[in-house]
Amino acid sequence: MVLRSELVKTARAEYFNQITWTPQKDGSVIQLWELVDTEDKVLYEAFRGKYVRRNVN
Q1: What are residue 26's DSSP bridge partners?
Q2: Which of 6, 16, 21, 43 could pair with 35 in a Cys bridge, judged by C-beta atoms 3.0 to 4.6 Å apart?
Q3: Sign of the torsion angle spanned by Cα atoms 21, 2, 34, 5
């Protein structure tokens, strides 16, 4: 699943915040947050994380 913000305009750049969640075979999910320019070029990787379901017993 991909979520993309509206265009962010600053004095230095114009970019989108794009967050992608990718399910893994082991049931975990990788989240990737990137800043992407108007030509879909990745400018910066802001965050990469792995979410794992916790067993509650």
Answers
A1: none
A2: 43
A3: negative
Contact 19, 42 (CB under 8 A): no
pLDDT in tens, 2-53: 999 999 999 999 999 999 999 999 999 999 999 999 999 999 999 999 999 8
Three-state SS sequence of the chain = CEEECCCEECCCCEEEEEEEEEECCCCCEEEEEEEECCCCCEEEEEEEEEECCCCCC
CA distances from 3 to 19, 31, 51, 54, 57 (A): 5, 11, 17, 25, 33
